[in-house]
Each structure stands twice: as structure tokens, then as C-alpha cells.
């Protein structure tokens, strides 16, 4: 794991997402505890008590003065009420829907990275796509990659609009997947299976499916077509789901999430 040899601060670092990123950075050695700063309104170290070398402050300006990299991990609605002057810092935002133009205006920095990640960062399983402004240099990009590799997997994408798509697609962990899992649990309990057993079975199904999709050579489309070609019970279910236009309905749900991500902040 590459190490970021720059003091790094997380504004909003005690929320669920900020704490997950902080934990990932320390646990995987991307940032030393002594080089990590957290800013929150209360000055609380809650959730990070074991990392005694981490500096906790309530003062945004103090963090910005001390850190070369600043991660903005705040609810988008909190942005207008903050003074975030940090013109010479690398600013990485994981705030949904906040554009790079808006981030430049708010921080005074031209070195802006807009990203999306998830609380799965705490266990190294987040997917974190990001886009950078032209002022972000090669060294900055290496730091961004190291930061998000500590959280899981990452890619730099070419268009900012794609971050809104990923906000809807991969940000809500487990969100949409959990909805599908709950539907399967409800089906099992409706068939008379004990709720605890139904939940355990479906949890294991999704765990195994995720591992196979993550580590196998076959694509998701390959798995679907193989099941249909086998012409068994799963094929019957998949064909019925296609007849009911389940993929198209999922796409409409994702469209709604993308529209929400693009609402002005």
C-alpha cells in the first residue's frame, strides 16, 4: 500500500463516512496517525479513540493550515455555512452533488478532486471513482489514488457527470442491493421459512455472489447467460424477470437517484 507523505485532514471526519475513510487510511498505512487531522463541530474523538495520535479540532482554519491534503466529507447542505479558504491545498470532496466549480468557489483552490465513496471504506471494500481539475498534478493524483486504494478500489474517470452516475450506482452501499436481498427474504418467509434462517441464507447468497463476481473471470452478463443456457430453475426465474422488465425498472430507479444527485446545492 502506497503511503501519502503529506499531512492529511478530514473535515467531517467523525461522521459515518469520514470515520470510515480515517479508519481505512490508518489501518492500511496510507497515512500515519500522527499525520491525520479530523475536524468536527464537537471536538469529539468518538469512533477513533484508539488512534490517540490523530489530531482532532473544531477549527477548520487550523486544519487547513496544518494539512496539505483536505478531504471534505460533509452533508452538501453544510457547505454554504462554512468558511473553507484553502487556496493552496489539494481538496478532495466526497460530497454528493457538489460540483468542482462550486468547490473551487468555496475553497479558493484550483486543485480540486471530486469523488464518490462509501462507508464500506472502513473494511477496504468501497469503490471510489474520482475526477480532477486540470490544476491537479501527477503527485497529487498519486496521493488521491493511494487514499482511495486504502478504501478499496478506485478509478479516475474522464467526465464529472459520471460522478453523479456513480453517486447513484455505487455510493449507496448496500442500498439497492439490500432492497433486492430483502425482497428475497420476504419471499422465503412467505413460503414458511423461519425469518432467521431466511435472512442467514440470503446473506450468505449475497456474500458468495459478491465474492464470485469480484474475483472470477466471468462477467455478470456471463453468469446470467450461463444460467439461462443451463435451462433450469434459475433460468425460469431470470426469463420471467426479463419479461417483467426488471432491468428497465432498475434503470428507472437509478435515473431517479442520478437526478437527485444533480439537484443544485
UniProtKB/TrEMBL annotation:
State a GO cellular component annotated for this protein. Answer: cytoplasm
Q: Which UniProt keywords apply?
A: Amino-acid biosynthesis, Cytoplasm, NADP, Oxidoreductase, Proline biosynthesis
User: Which GO molecular function terms does the record list?
Assistant: pyrroline-5-carboxylate reductase activity
> Which residue numbers delimit the Pyrroline-5-carboxylate reductase dimerisation domain?
160-263
Protein's GO biological process: L-proline biosynthetic process
Taxonomy, superkingdom: Bacteria
Q: Where in the cell is it found?
A: Cytoplasm
Coiled-coil residue spans: none
Which Pfam families does the entry link to?
A: F420_oxidored, P5CR_dimer
EC number, UniProt record: 1.5.1.2
- UniProt-listed Gene3D superfamilies: NAD(P)-binding Rossmann-like Domain (3.40.50.720), ProC C-terminal domain-like (1.10.3730.10)
Query: What enzyme class is recorded for this protein?
Result: oxidoreductase
Where in this chain does the record put each Pyrroline-5-carboxylate reductase catalytic N-terminal domain? 9-97
Pathway of action: Amino-acid biosynthesis; L-proline biosynthesis; L-proline from L-glutamate 5-semialdehyde: step 1/1
What reaction gets catalysed by this protein? L-proline + NADP(+) = (S)-1-pyrroline-5-carboxylate + NADPH + 2 H(+); L-proline + NAD(+) = (S)-1-pyrroline-5-carboxylate + NADH + 2 H(+)
> What protein family is recorded?
Belongs to the pyrroline-5-carboxylate reductase family.
What is its biological role? Catalyzes the reduction of 1-pyrroline-5-carboxylate (PCA) to L-proline.
Protein name, per record: Pyrroline-5-carboxylate reductase
State the encoding gene: proC
